[in-house]
Amino acid sequence: MAEVKVDAVDAAALQQLLPLSDEKGGAEARERMFKEFVVRSNCLVQMGESVATKARSRAWNGTLSLDSLRPLLLKKLLLAKVFSDSSRFFPFPLVEHSFEIAREWLEPVSSTDHECVDLNQWHVMVFALVMEAHVAAAAPWKNDKGGWVLDQDAFADLCGQLASRTRLADFSTPEETLETLSDWAESPEDAVQFLGKACKAESAASASATVSFEAFAKWLVRKQLPHWHTETEELKSRKRAFQLLKLMNNTPSLPNSVPGKLTPRNSDAGGILLLKTLPESQWTSTNRRFFSDSATFFQKTGGFIM
User: Fold this and answer.
1) Distance between terminal CA atoms of the chain?
2) Distance (Å, rounded) from C-alpha 238 to C-alpha 224?
3) Distance, CA of 140 to chain centre
4) C-alpha to C-alpha distance for 45 and 55, rounded to whole angstroms
5) Are 106 and 263 in contact (CB under 8 A)?
6) For residues 63 and 75, what is the distance between their CA atoms, to the nearest angstrom?
7) Residues 214, 143: contact at Cβ < 8 Å?
8) CA distance 233 to 120
């Protein structure tokens, strides 16, 4: 198996580009980047870019597909020099995997998302991408049948390294996660068995006694997400995503949007979290009282905007 050649991630550059701490304006910075990507993606569609056109053909304005998001985000990472030139192809699988985690963790604001992420899911994607970048650069992962794997000894070293840190990527690791990492550092075979069952490729992981990067990264991100993207933050960012979609699509509402299922951790809560929305706006004119609701716009206004 060939080793994945990755230099250490420039943590300062990554934190400046994709900040996780809201105390330093992280949410606003992430939102600005997402809106920039939406605008740039729309410009690519207007210029006739085939990939962007295909991705945006049926998607909501204000959302991004993987085909539209991938080149824009990769360019940002390369320009910020988060990875060295020798690792310039390294972020490709991280972007795709973090995109999948965001879509699995959060329901979209609108159910007709056409395999895109909205602003709410984007925050989760950024968190997953940052965490995975640090984990991937902290161990000598190897390519195996298209995926990255780590043998038991190297994985034990990785768990010990992560357990010794109180913070990872400017975020405090939860205590229960640190305890699990410490246990796996002493008994990596338990991690191989546990993550092998969590991964769809259970037989391959168990047979080779290796740990899949995809399975471990997904476990680590999911263990920390409830402590970072809390229900309060989720409701706030979901509302912002809803407002962006309404604005970008010039519509007062969206199909099957709010209220809706939020995250897996709320699915068995017994109650439904509701978001208050404003009623649909209605126009009026001095002539409207003379016509029925089915009358046309020009019948109601006499051809003039009143």
Assistant:
1) 72
2) 19
3) 25
4) 9
5) yes
6) 19
7) no
8) 10
Q: How confident is the model at residue 29 (pLDDT cuts 50, 70, 90)?
A: very high
Task: Say what the pTM is.
Answer: 0.75
Cα separations in angstroms, 81 against 9, 64, 72, 133, 245: 9, 24, 15, 13, 32
List of residues 6+ apart from 132 with CB closer than 8 A:
94, 97, 98, 217, 221
Interacting residues of 143 by C-beta distance below 8 A, sequence separation 6+: 1, 2, 3, 4
Task: Yes or no: say if 99 and 125 are a contact pair by the CB < 8 Å rule.
Answer: yes
Q: Is the pLDDT of residue 224 over 60?
A: yes
- Say which residues have a Cβ less than 8 Å from residue 72's Cβ, sequence separation at least 6: 37, 40, 41
Question: Could you tell me the two tokens for 270?
Answer: 């017994």
User: Which backbone phi and psi does 173 adopt, to 5 degrees?
Assistant: -70, 130
Q: Which residue bears the tokens 């085909």?
A: 67
Residue 28, CA atoms < 13 Å, CB-side half-sphere: 3
Is 90 exceeded by the pLDDT of residue 177?
Answer: yes
At residue 117, φ and ψ (nearest 5 deg) are -115, 140
